[in-house]
Structure formats: C-alpha cells, structure tokens
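Incident log, support desk, overnight shift.

02:14 A customer reports that sequence design results differ from what the structure should imply. Their input is reproduced verbatim below. On-call engineer (initials T.W.) acknowledged and began investigating.
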C-alpha cells in the first residue's frame, strides 16, 4: 500500500487581496506538483485561488464548506464537504491537516493558526498574522514567517519528511 499523501491546509480570507490570491495560486501549484493534498475552506478568495491552481497542476483540493450545500464550493475544489457548522469548520480544517499555511486573512485565519499551534502542527505565515504571547514582545517562533510561496512550501516539506 502506498504511503498516505500529506495534507496541507491553506487558510486565508474570502475577501483576499490581489497579492494574497497570487500567493495562494503559487502555493496551490507548488503543493500539487509536490504531491500534497490541499484542504481549505472551499469558498472564495484564497480558497478559490489555491483550489484552481491545484486543479490546474493535477492536484487534489478538499474544501470543508461552512454551509450545507456542496454547490457552494469554488471551482477547482476536487472534494467538497458541506459541514453545516459555519466557522467551527476551521477546527476541522486544521485537525485534518499535517501542516498549515496562512496567507493574509482575517479572524478566521487567525483561529486556524491558533488551532494549528494548539494541535502542534507546523504553521507558516505569508503576509499573515503575527502571533505574540501575552507578556512577550517578539512573535511566537512556532509560527514560521515566510516571504515567498516557495519558501513556505519548502519549509513545510522539510517538516513533513
């Protein structure tokens, strides 16, 4: 039996910036080309960009949708799963992955990063939240700050060997 493919969550805002969508597209291509399965929120913004890129590169993207309708999945989502649990699905996204890449994002992305840290998953931030523990000044070193899509995927790949 072949080994289970590694799963990387790609998280970010549904109201993503052009730069964040460009970064998500690059991440989607790189992850798919390297054989990773992608899990995301399955909707607009970062999820749409990463799913389309994964599909274009022959990869698989699982979308854990907040609502009850599979039809709400972004084009490019290979496997839409309608959870019906709204933002609570963020915990499911993180629980199902081996590592997480946060791109930009709002409070939902921050919650996914926090779940990743609590569950001891490798977490990379690209133009995303800086997590600072109470009483500290410097960002938490558990969140790797990457400046390019390639750096983020390389870092994840090294952690999941």
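02:41 Re-run completed on a clean worker. Output:
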């Amino acid at each position: 039996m072949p080994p289970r493919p590694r799963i990387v969550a790609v998280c970010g805002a549904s109201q993503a910036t052009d730069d964040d969508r460009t970064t998500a597209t690059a991440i989607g291509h790189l992850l798919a080309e390297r054989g990773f399965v992608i899990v995301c929120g399955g909707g607009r913004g970062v999820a749409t960009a990463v799913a389309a890129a994964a599909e274009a590169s022959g990869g698989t993207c699982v979308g854990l949708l907040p609502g009850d309708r599979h039809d709400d999945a972004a084009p490019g989502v290979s496997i839409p799963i309608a959870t019906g649990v709204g933002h609570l699905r963020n915990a499911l996204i993180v629980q199902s992955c081996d590592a997480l890449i946060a791109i930009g994002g709002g409070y939902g992305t921050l919650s996914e990063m926090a779940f990743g840290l609590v569950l001891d998953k490798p977490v990379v931030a690209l133009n995303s939240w800086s997590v600072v523990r109470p009483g500290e000044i410097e960002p938490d070193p558990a969140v790797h700050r990457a400046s390019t899509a390639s750096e983020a995927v390389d870092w994840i790949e090294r952690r999941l060997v």
